[in-house]
Description:
Layout: H1 8-19, H2 25-32, H3 36-48, H4 61-68, E1 72-80, H5 85-96, E2 101-106, E3 113-119, H6 122-134, E4 139-146
Antiparallel strand pairs: 1-3, 1-4, 2-3
Helix pairs in contact: 2-3
Amino acid sequence: xxxxxLDATDLQLLAQLQSDAALSNQALAERLHISPPTCLRRVxxxxxxxxxxxxxxxxxxxxxxxxxxxxxxxxxxxxxDRQDNAxxxxxxxxxxxxxxxxxxxxxxxxxxxxxVVHCANMPGYLALVQQLFTADANVRNVKTFFxxxxxxxxxxxxxxxxxxx
Length: 165
């Protein structure tokens, strides 16, 4: 793959799509003052380059709770006994396969991983603990923090301001 160069239009497209990926191509083109074919071509290029990994819907936790219950959100710190590359990657693969694990970060210093986990209830969380942590002889320590309120949630990455010259 050749090196990709981003211009002001690309950065504006990425910013708009981070805010609302459901915008039609026509609406996106209008916001950026470019033609719809140009807009479509550029968005396709950004997808193909891997800058846009996927487009998802972000659900309202509070509104969904009245229909299906609140569930349980936990932030989990994991420390492993062995931190060689193979052990770290094996752990990452195991947690990535679990739908309940929404985010996994390899961190330093402190624990080796921080996970964001969503389960239907405490029995669901305990089953996940047994499967991912207790059954893994390389897991030395697990420290869990349970969320009582989500004050902010976002997935927006800061982008540099780029001005055409």
